[in-house]
């Protein structure tokens, strides 16, 4: 059996005051016909990154609805995760050539994981992202099965896409976060579009007073009396941390006391590239006492990671997510929920969350980001109005019961 990730049970009733009555009733109605349905979800890591975040909150809700849902992870491997990170980057458009040895390594790990699954049973299987995707090649009776791809595959490297496409076609359904991510090569009848969602009641998302947030920031040497811009995301080239620093430096010419925090704690087991990107970011930031980089979870001492992130999102004047590729961007959703003005890259899933000028701003360059930073910090009324509209958007579209409903509708179709 694959390693299991233990999860609690969460009642839908907890969400009653933050979702519509219509959504509440629909989820309850759908779940009635799915009691004791055995659902197995599989991904590559139990913590770090958006997929683990979603599963940690979706699985408990499914269990609360009477569904026998469980979450498993494939066995880790340093070389394997190095390879899958390269495939991940290639699927998001990076130049890449997949060698025979790399293909063999991927298949070796898929066969190894599949052997561990021979004693597992499920009514529905859900496989998240490319890392465990190829398991289906070694489990021909693996149905009904769903592949949920969370990354931006709108402009993939063709060689990488040709490698994963045969696996994708073996699944009964393929879920993408955004319509544009679904290749026209795939059968339309197999494609589903499920934008991700957040749990507003976690330590990361529940209300934290501004006073407490500022106190936490002060303990990490950030001056609460000076304006602060933050980006909370892994140190990853697609998140463009160097572009964020460029935007900050441009904005600082007009707001001399501006501070920048880049928060990218090394939590994900499947991201060996992060250290390399962090070191490059560190080199570029060197010498500026108003740039703060956070990568080591041990720096937090007794403070929980979720509370740390909450403090930065709550205590920042502006939150950035200047990605150049982005599957969705849960950190955008989280900051919007906290009524923060968010400046996001005009890419991927960020575009379906932010309506430019209404509930946030979309930018395509460091110069554009800098202009919006200055505008928001100088105009507190605009910042407040944007933040309020952002919160309402998340409430209506991006809370976990909506994603649960999407899944339950699909389960009902497949069984």
From TrEMBL:
Transferase found in the keyword field: yes
Gene3D superfamilies: Glycogen Phosphorylase B (3.40.50.2000)
Name of the protein in its database record: Uncharacterized protein
Keywords assigned: Carbohydrate metabolism, Glucose metabolism, Glycosyltransferase, Transferase
GO molecular function, one term: glycosyltransferase activity
GO biological process, one term: glucose metabolic process
Domain Trehalose synthase N-terminal, first and last residues per copy: 41-182
Assembly and binders: Homodimer.
Regions crossing the membrane: none
Protein species of origin: marine sediment metagenome
InterPro entries assigned: Glyco_trans_1, Trehalose_Metab_GTase, TreT_GT1
Pfam families: Glycos_transf_1, TreT_GT1
Presence of the UniProt keyword Ion transport in the record: no
Domain Glycosyl transferase family: 218-392
Family stated for the protein in its record: Belongs to the glycosyltransferase group 1 family. Glycosyltransferase 4 subfamily.
């Amino acid at each position: 059996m694959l390693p299991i990730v233990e999860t609690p049970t969460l009642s839908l009733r907890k969400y009653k005051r933050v979702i519509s009555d219509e959504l509440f009733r629909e989820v309850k109605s759908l779940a009635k016909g799915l009691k004791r349905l055995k659902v197995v979800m599989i991904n590559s890591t139990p913590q770090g990154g958006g997929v683990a975040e979603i599963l940690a909150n979706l699985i408990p809700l499914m269990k609360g609805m009477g569904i026998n849902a469980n979450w498993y992870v494939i066995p880790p491997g340093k070389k394997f995760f190095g390879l899958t990170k390269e495939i991940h980057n290639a699927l998001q458009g990076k130049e890449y050539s997949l060698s025979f040895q790399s293909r063999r390594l991927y298949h070796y790990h898929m066969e190894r994981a599949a052997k561990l699954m021979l004693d597992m049973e499920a009514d529905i299987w859900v496989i998240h992202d490319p890392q465990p995707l190829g398991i289906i090649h070694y489990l021909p009776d693996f149905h009904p099965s769903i592949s949920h791809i969370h990354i931006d595959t709108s402009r993939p490297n063709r060689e990488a896409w040709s490698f994963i496409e045969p696996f994708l076609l073996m699944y009964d359904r393929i879920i993408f976060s955004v319509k544009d991510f679904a290749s026209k090569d795939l059968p339309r009848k197999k494609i589903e579009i499920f934008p991700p969602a957040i749990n507003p009641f976690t330590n990361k998302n529940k209300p934290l007073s501004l006073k407490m947030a500022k106190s936490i920031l002060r303990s990490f040497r950030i001056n609460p009396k000076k304006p602060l811009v933050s980006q909370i995301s892994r140190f990853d080239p697609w998140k463009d941390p160097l572009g964020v620093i460029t935007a900050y430096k441009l904005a600082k010419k007009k707001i001399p006391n501006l501070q920048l925090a880049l928060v990218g704690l090394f939590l994900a087991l499947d991201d060996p590239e992060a250290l390399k990107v962090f070191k490059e970011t560190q080199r570029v930031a060197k010498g500026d006492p108003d740039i703060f980089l956070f990568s080591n979870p041990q720096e937090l001492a007794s403070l929980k990671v979720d509370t740390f992130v909450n403090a930065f999102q709550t205590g920042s004047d502006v939150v950035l997510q200047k990605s150049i590729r982005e599957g969705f961007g849960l950190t955008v959703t989280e900051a919007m929920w906290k009524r923060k003005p968010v400046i996001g890259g005009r890419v991927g899933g960020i575009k379906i969350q932010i309506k430019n000028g209404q509930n946030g701003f979309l930018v395509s360059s460091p110069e554009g980001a800098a202009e919006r930073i200055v505008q928001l910090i100088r105009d507190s009324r605009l910042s407040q109005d944007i933040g309020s509209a952002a919160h309402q958007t998340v409430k209506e579209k991006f809370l976990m019961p909506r994603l649960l409903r999407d899944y339950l509708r699909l389960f009902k179709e497949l069984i």
